[in-house]
Write a structure and sequence with these properties.
globular, about 25% helix, alpha/beta, 13 helices, 8-stranded mixed β-sheet, Cholesterol Oxidase, domain 2, 9-stranded mixed β-sheet
Length: about 500
């Protein structure tokens, strides 16, 4: 059943209308969609992948914020959640999805989480031997390794010094899907060296190599056609890659459909088309709430140089991780919690002497939701008291690590707090009773809005990823996670994508 052209297909090749036919149609080309495509193609199925963003080569990326926000980020980087604090929630756009802009961090799904998904949510398909096989494959395909010290550079090394000075356990360099990393510090702008193995350059490349997959960029999918309990077609618009304006039509028929639009896009597509009810679809949004801190050192750190996120401290049993991070100078400016004026410019003048790290919390008692409304998506996230306490514990420990490494001043992501000048002031500066609105929150890794489970009364998809009530519709991305993961999710997302793909292929 081939009614499409295999390979990478761009807007200039589409004409005014696309009418395609295949065995399986995937909407979304991120971590989950790319893994599904590879799994299906290797089982001999013909696959069409539709993606709203573009195809990219490493040489296409530009080290400019304007370029990245326009081309590589959902909502031009302005996507956020309302709640008891304003919470930024970025997401990737393009073939490769958020793996185009992430820091390539790789963790396997923690055993206690996978066990809870099986035993508490009835996901019997996620048995250890099977999932370990998928994790091993993802690890190999992504070329996961620990980058050498030569490219870690000062921001990661100074945090390591502080961890060792405090005698903390669990500190280590992070495994990353960037075996060719040169430490240019531009992960969030797309990897210009090609050293990062994003989904488009790994699983999607494997899928394309079979000659059974066509990946069509610049396709904004909006609707469906149905017959009984079956989806018969997806429909949408072709868009201009520069202006993002709709200027053509697309329709794809298939035997099976997979929605891989991410934890925001997937529930919105299902809800807009009446494919799932809002009782659970769009509910249960979980993230890894994070808060950053900057620290001033006497010596130069040059945070823009080196692996963007290379070192971490495993405090998973306490409900959080500490992870280093770096961003470009303009983003450091945006992250500062000081008002415009002399103080802010003094800090920016010292940028070469600043280091940065933050706490990433395992979402346990917060409440989030993705809603489809007539005027557009409504995203909400309310930080729970327990998660707030865990964040503050992580912020306090981050400050302790910085001071132990020799920092002279720490700037935590607390609104209105200029700086912490000495270790003795950490607890008073970061009290447990501070309002959530005083934290500069960042929502890393949205998950859970189409959660998997054994009971249609409490979940959106069954343990094989099929949407309840539909015989040929599945979801494959981090939205199907039953709970928060507690670690960076790309490996687990890809592993579940392989599982969903192999289940569809039979």
């Amino acid at each position: 059943m081939r009614g499409f052209e295999p390979g990478k297909r761009r807007r200039a090749e589409h004409g005014d209308r696309l009418d395609l036919q295949c065995d399986v149609c995937i909407v979304g080309a991120g971590a989950g969609g790319s893994a599904v495509a590879a799994a299906l193609a290797e089982r001999g199925l013909d696959v069409v992948v539709l993606e709203e963003g573009q195809h990219w080569n490493p040489s296409d990326f530009q080290s400019k914020t304007r370029f990245a926000l326009k081309n590589l980020y959902q909502g031009r980087g302005l996507r956020s959640c309302r709640g008891n604090a304003i919470t930024l929630m970025p997401g990737g756009r393009g073939v490769g999805g958020s793996t185009l802009i992430n820091s390539a961090i790789c963790f396997r799904c923690p055993d206690p989480v996978l066990k809870s998904w099986r035993e508490e949510h009835g996901c019997e398909t996620l048995e250890p031997a099977r999932m370990n096989g998928y994790f091993d494959r993802v690890w190999s395909t992504l070329g996961v390794s620990v980058n050498p010290v030569a490219v870690q550079r000062n921001n990661n090394l100074i945090f390591k010094e502080g961890v060792e000075a405090l005698g903390l356990e669990g500190g280590a360099f992070m495994a990353r899907s960037a075996p060719g990393c040169v430490g240019c510090g531009l992960c969030q702008y797309g990897c210009p060296s090609g050293g990062k193995y994003s989904a488009d350059r790994t699983f999607m490349a494997e899928a394309l190599a079979t000659g059974r997959v066509g990946v069509y960029s610049d396709c904004r999918m909006r609707g469906v056609e149905t017959d009984g309990d079956r989806v018969t077609a997806v429909t949408g618009f072709l868009i201009d890659p520069d202006t993002h304006a709709e200027n053509g039509e697309v329709r794809v028929t298939a035997d099976h459909f997979v929605i891989s639009g991410g934890p925001v896009g997937s529930p919105l597509f299902l809800l807009a088309n009446g494919l799932a009810e809002n009782t659970h679809c769009g509910q249960h949004l979980v993230v890894h709430p994070t808060v950053a801190a900057l620290a001033r050192f006497p010596q130069e750190i040059r945070p823009w140089s080196g692996v963007t996120q290379g070192y971490y401290v495993d405090c998973w049993e306490k409900g959080f991780l500490l992870q280093t991070f770096t961003v470009t100078p303009d983003n450091y400016y945006i992250a500062l919690q000081t008002g415009m004026g002399e103080e802010t410019m003094r800090i920016m003048k010292d940028l070469a002497h600043l280091a940065s790290a933050g706490a990433l919390v395992h979402d346990e008692d917060s409440a989030g939701r993705v809603q489809h409304t007539p005027v557009g998506p409504d995203l909400s996230y309310f930080l729970g008291d327990g998660d707030k306490k865990r964040l503050i514990d992580g912020m306090r420990l981050t400050a302790e690590v910085f001071f132990a490494a020799g920092a002279t001043r720490v700037h935590p992501g607390r609104v209105g707090l200029t700086a912490i000048e000495r270790p003795e002031d950490i607890e008073a500066s970061l009290p447990y009773d501070m309002p959530a609105s005083h934290l500069f929150l960042y929502a890393s890794h949205p998950m859970g809005t189409c959660r998997m489970g054994a009971d249609p009364e409490t979940s959106v998809v069954d343990p094989r990823g099929r949407v309840w009530g539909w015989s040929n519709l599945s979801v494959a991305d981090a939205s199907i996670f039953p709970t928060s993961l507690g670690v960076n999710p790309q490996v687990t997302t890809m592993a579940l994508g392989l599982m969903v793909g192999h289940t569809i292929a039979g």
